[in-house]
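TICKET: design request
STATUS: open
ATTACHED STRUCTURE:
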């Protein structure tokens, strides 16, 4: 490539980059952004709804399937997905719906459902996870308590390991 062609290609690249904001996110794929970010307000509404409103979660997920594992940042490192929201409030029906759709299950979910066959080996492999903080600082013990009778064995196991707190402040 000679100097003239190099300068031309550099100018075209510069103009394309400068024009990108003019086209907006709707045309991001045309300009080389194959996966634009989800709207923060949309994610916030979806995650917020997962604390209490299964019908709204279903409707939003039908319209925007990529919301399934989207996390909202409540600030100070407090990230929450719809699964995390439904789990920490003990909304088992919604948790199961999200899992059936392919949400990323975790040890907090296993505690809610009393899945000792998941919780015990996980804590044996990674003992420090006993003190993991979920959304809003809720601990594994909190999630087991939300699981009520179904999670009683997990609750007792966590307490036998010394876990006493149900919530640890994040900030």
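STATUS: resolved
RESOLUTION: sequence designed for all positions
ATTACHED SEQUENCE:
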């Amino acid at each position: 490539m000679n100097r003239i062609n190099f300068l031309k290609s550099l100018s075209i690249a510069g103009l394309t980059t400068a024009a990108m904001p003019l086209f907006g996110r709707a045309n991001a794929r045309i300009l080389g952004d194959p996966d634009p970010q989800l709207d923060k307000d949309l994610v916030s509404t979806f995650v917020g709804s997962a604390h209490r409103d299964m019908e709204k979660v279903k409707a939003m997920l039908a319209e925007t399937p990529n919301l399934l594992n989207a996390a909202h940042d409540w600030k100070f490192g407090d990230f929450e997905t719809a699964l995390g929201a439904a789990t920490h409030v003990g909304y088992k029906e919604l948790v199961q719906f999200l899992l059936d759709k392919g949400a990323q299950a975790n040890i907090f979910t296993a505690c809610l459902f009393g899945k000792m066959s998941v919780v015990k080996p996980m804590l044996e492999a990674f003992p420090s996870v006993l003190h993991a903080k979920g959304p809003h600082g809720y601990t594994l013990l909190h999630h087991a308590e939300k699981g009520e009778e179904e999670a009683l064995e997990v609750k007792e196991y966590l307490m036998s390991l010394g876990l006493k707190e149900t919530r640890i402040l994040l900030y």
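CLOSING REMARK: The chain has three domains: 1-36, 38-104, 106-171. Confidence is low (pLDDT under 50) at residues 12-27.
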